[in-house]
């Protein structure tokens, strides 16, 4: 008997009390492992996550969590060969394994980078601008995101045993949530190996990751209002989860990413011989054969102009004819087997259902005479007029159906009949066609690839989910949204509207709020390193008069001779100015001259300006002065410096705001690092 997969629960590895269900090698039919969760205390797992894992993660800032993910991805990358070897048993070729394994590691690296670049080195995130709730500015509103004290349960599909886990784990971990991972049984042995190596590394805090090998049993019964479930799998199972009492009445958040009938649309501007023609045909075949078509993003419906339908079908069929199906370990193999014999049976049933309204162009042929492997060669169908089944039946394997349209509106209608998809693609070199199709398809898709000769060299293809873009889709695709960069993190957090005074908001958010107290330091704030700089430290400059000579010189020096700065008569006729006014960038430049300390010091560099607005024109003879206040301090965990965001307010002689903006600087962590 093969090895029984273990669960990692409450800080220890657990072997079930039953023999378990056999898991077979997709290519040979030999037993790889057995799986069971019999006897596992699922309530203890949830309790451990809440009381041990969650608090340990939430003690860390977003940057500290992100750095742990970087360490984790680096560690796992060094173990890639071991994972590739075991991945063969799932039916994955080396190319398929790269999608799953390297794709998973890349997603973790991406979230680590985004967490450090786009989130504060804190545990609270401000969302949007302040809302002034009263007349005088002493009562304000600020939306914030905070971590929930809950558990993220992640139920994953069989087709991506590595990426499927890591793409959910990474954003949940940065959001402050511990994860309980429940992989699909067919390929759980690969997920278990990854989790085992993660646990052995000791990189993540104990309790932040647990593994459930086998049935989920009554797991959802132990979840409450602060918990969430992210499910990837069939629409049927998703429907059962939606009816669970914990979801219906207990406040548990359920996110679903389900199977969908994704499509690719060929624009009517494309002809045989065009670069887009080859891109389209190659893209369809790639999506049919990568992971043996077992991808939730694979192209199931091929929508082409009626005049080109025969030619496109022939081109796809010809390319499929050269696809070598065989053992995933063979270098010549282009497509391996499906994940299991049961999965192959399901795909064959779907093909039979499609035959009722489609003609088979490329038939399945025998690949493995032994019958032990779950091999299935690609199948291409051609939909008859009025076919219904291709829009309702999904064959989760190497199967696609070609259908034709006469007008762009008809193409959009055909795509919409899929009732919502994860991803669609449009292949065209005509911008007008692209706009028409994309705007028609967008309400029905979570992501749309517009592919042509220009972006093809860098395109990742129709089906590749990218960590910086939302992965999910409306309707039958589940309605969920995974990934999406920081959006994927914030999805796990609670957004709250905080109503308070400026001083209270500064204390709560860790970011200076306009109207709250400032601290005038004895020496210039630019003389302070991060070790001594504080939120609210400020400098108020002396006034400076903007003369007509200053305006003329700036216009000559920069070449900005816009009439409002150079033509008195035209400027006087402008209702916004009523005469010559200073350039906005002259104001900003002179404001810098009023607050900059020129000597070398802890301030290492200015790397940008955010939210610049010019509010009141400055005429020749007016004066300006600036108040600069430390708004936010973000140490970089992996560097000897950090980012300081300064609030800049420029006013005129009547104390009217002239310009507002944030100045961004890099500042040394300690005084002895002064330049």
Automatic annotation (TrEMBL):
<protein>
    <submittedName>
        <fullName>Phenylacetic acid degradation bifunctional protein PaaZ</fullName>
    </submittedName>
</protein>
<dbReference type="InterPro" id="IPR016161">
    <property type="entry name" value="Ald_DH/histidinol_DH"/>
</dbReference>
<dbReference type="InterPro" id="IPR015590">
    <property type="entry name" value="Aldehyde_DH_dom"/>
</dbReference>
<dbReference type="InterPro" id="IPR029069">
    <property type="entry name" value="HotDog_dom_sf"/>
</dbReference>
<keyword id="KW-0560">Oxidoreductase</keyword>
<dbReference type="InterPro" id="IPR011966">
    <property type="entry name" value="PaaN-DH"/>
</dbReference>
<feature type="domain" description="Aldehyde dehydrogenase">
    <location>
        <begin position="14"/>
        <end position="437"/>
    </location>
</feature>
<dbReference type="Pfam" id="PF00171">
    <property type="entry name" value="Aldedh"/>
</dbReference>
<dbReference type="Pfam" id="PF01575">
    <property type="entry name" value="MaoC_dehydratas"/>
</dbReference>
<dbReference type="InterPro" id="IPR002539">
    <property type="entry name" value="MaoC-like_dom"/>
</dbReference>
<dbReference type="GO" id="GO:0016620">
    <property type="term" value="F:oxidoreductase activity, acting on the aldehyde or oxo group of donors, NAD or NADP as acceptor"/>
</dbReference>
<dbReference type="InterPro" id="IPR016163">
    <property type="entry name" value="Ald_DH_C"/>
</dbReference>
<comment type="similarity">
    <text>Belongs to the enoyl-CoA hydratase/isomerase family.</text>
</comment>
<comment type="similarity">
    <text>Belongs to the aldehyde dehydrogenase family.</text>
</comment>
<dbReference type="InterPro" id="IPR016162">
    <property type="entry name" value="Ald_DH_N"/>
</dbReference>
<feature type="domain" description="MaoC-like">
    <location>
        <begin position="539"/>
        <end position="642"/>
    </location>
</feature>
């Amino acid at each position: 008997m093969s090895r029984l997969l273990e669960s990692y629960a409450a800080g220890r590895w657990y072997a079930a009390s039953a023999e378990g269900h056999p898991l077979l090698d997709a290519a040979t039919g030999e037993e790889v492992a057995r799986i069971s969760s019999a006897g596992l205390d699922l309530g203890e797992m949830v309790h451990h996550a809440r009381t041990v894992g969650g608090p340990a993660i939430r003690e860390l800032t977003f940057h500290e969590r992100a750095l742990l993910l970087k360490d984790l991805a680096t560690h796992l990358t060094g173990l890639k060969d071991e994972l590739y070897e075991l991945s063969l048993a799932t039916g994955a070729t080396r190319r398929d394994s790269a999608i799953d394994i390297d794709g998973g590691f890349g997603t973790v690296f991406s979230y680590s980078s985004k967490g450090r670049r786009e989130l504060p080195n804190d545990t609270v995130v401000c969302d949007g601008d302040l809302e002034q709730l009263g007349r005088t500015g002493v009562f304000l509103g600020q939306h914030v995101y905070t971590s929930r004290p809950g558990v993220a349960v992640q139920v994953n599909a069989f087709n991506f045993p590595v990426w499927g886990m890591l793409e959910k784990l990474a954003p949940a971990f940065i959001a402050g949530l511990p994860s309980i991972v429940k992989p699909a049984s067919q390929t759980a042995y690969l997920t278990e190996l990854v989790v085992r190596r993660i646990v052995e590394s000791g990189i993540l805090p104990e309790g932040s990751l647990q593994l459930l090998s086998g049935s989920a049993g009554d797991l959802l019964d132990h979840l409450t209002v602060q918990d969430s479930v992210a499910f990837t799998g069939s629409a049927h199972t998703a429907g059962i989860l939606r009816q669970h009492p914990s979801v219906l009445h207990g406040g548990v958040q359920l996110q679903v990413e389900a199977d969908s009938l994704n499509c690719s649309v060929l624009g009517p501007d494309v002809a045989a011989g065009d670069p887009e023609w080859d891109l389209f045909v190659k893209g369809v075949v790639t999506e049919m054969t990568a992971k043996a078509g077992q991808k939730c993003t694979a192209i199931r419906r091929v929508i082409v102009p009626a005049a080109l339908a025969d030619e496109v079908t022939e081109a796809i069929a010809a390319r499929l004819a050269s696809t070598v199906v065989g053992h995933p370990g063979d270098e010549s193999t282009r497509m391996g087997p499906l994940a299991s014999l049961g999965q192959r049976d399901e795909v064959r049933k779907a093909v039979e259902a499609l035959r009722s309204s489609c003609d088979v162009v490329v038939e399945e042929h025998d690949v493995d005479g032994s019958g032990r492997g779950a091999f299935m060669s690609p199948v291409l169908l051609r939909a008859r007029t009025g076919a219904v089944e291709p829009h309702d039946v999904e064959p989760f394997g190497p199967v696609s159906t070609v259908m034709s349209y006469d007008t762009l509106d008809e193409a959009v209608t055909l795509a919409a009949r899929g009732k919502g998809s994860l991803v669609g693609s449009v292949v065209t070199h005509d911008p007008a066609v692209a706009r028409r199709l994309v705007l028609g398809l967008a309400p029905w898709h979570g992501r749309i690839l517009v592919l042509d000769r220009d972006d093809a060299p860098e395109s990742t293809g129709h089906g590749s989910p990218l960590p910086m873009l939302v992965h999910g889709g409306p309707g039958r695709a589940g309605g969920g949204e995974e990934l999406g960069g920081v959006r994927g993190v914030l999805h796990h957090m609670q957004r709250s509207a905080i109503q308070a005074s400026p001083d209270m908001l500064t204390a709560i958010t860790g970011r200076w709020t306009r109207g709250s107290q400032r601290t005038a330091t004895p020496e210039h704030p630019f003389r302070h390193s991060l070790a001594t700089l504080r939120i609210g430290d400020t400098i108020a400059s002396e006034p400076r008069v903007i003369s007509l000579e200053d305006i003329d010189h700036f216009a000559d020096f920069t070449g900005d001779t816009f009439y409002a700065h150079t033509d008195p008569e035209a400027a006087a006729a402008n209702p916004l100015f009523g005469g010559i006014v200073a350039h906005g960038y002259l104001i900003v430049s002179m404001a810098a001259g009023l607050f900059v300390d020129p000597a070398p010091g802890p301030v290492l560099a200015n790397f940008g300006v955010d939210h610049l607005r010019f509010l009141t024109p400055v005429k020749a003879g007016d004066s300006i002065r600036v108040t600069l206040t430390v708004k936010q301090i973000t140490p970089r965990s992996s560097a000897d410096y950090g980012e300081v965001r300064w609030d800049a307010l420029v006013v005129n002689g009547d104390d009217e705001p002239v310009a507002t903006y944030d100045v961004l600087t890099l500042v040394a962590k300690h005084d002895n690092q002064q330049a």
